[in-house]
Amino acid sequence: MRETWEDAYDDFDDHDDDTSPYWEAGNRMPQDARAMGLTHHVPDGALLDFAGALDSGKRLHRVTAWVMLVVFGMPVLLYVLRLVLAVLPG
After folding, report:
1. Which of 33, 54, 55, 89 has its CA 20 to 30 A from that of 62?
2. CA distance readout (Å), 13 to 20, 29, 81
3. Cα→Cα distances 26→9, 44, 51, 72, Å
4. Read out DSSP for 3-61?
5. Using CA atoms, how far apart are residues 39 and 36, in angstroms rounded to an integer?
6. CA 4 and chain centroid, separation
7. Residue 69 DSSP class
């Protein structure tokens, strides 16, 4: 017997507790970040929330994680390279 669309997705919104739905923004924030007062409304918290939503099982999410690593790591790498070149003579 085939399930209808309503039967297949009926249990997603069926929860009795007072927690917010899983799809609501800010639910993937690490507990340490929440303790520091970060929410998805501030830039650092939004970035953590976005990164927490990435699923390593999906190829696009892995690519996104690598792009984020390059974007945020490249300035550090360039600064260290600049310091090394400034210290070395020649």
Report:
1. 33
2. 10, 21, 51
3. 22, 12, 11, 21
4. PPHHHHHTTTT---SSPPPTTSTTTT--HHHHHTT--TTSHHHHHHHHHHT--TTSHHH
5. 9
6. 33
7. H
Cα–Cα distance measured from residue 1 to residue 29, given in angstroms and rounded to the nearest whole number: 40
Residues in the chain: 90
Structure tokens at 37: 């007062």
pLDDT at 82: 95
d(CA 90, CA 87): 9
Mean pLDDT by 10 residues, the chain (90 residues): 60 61 67 84 87 91 96 96 89
Kindly list the domain boundaries of the chain, sorted by start residue.
1-53, 57-90
Which residue in 25, 21, 19, 20 sits closest to 9, CA to CA?
21
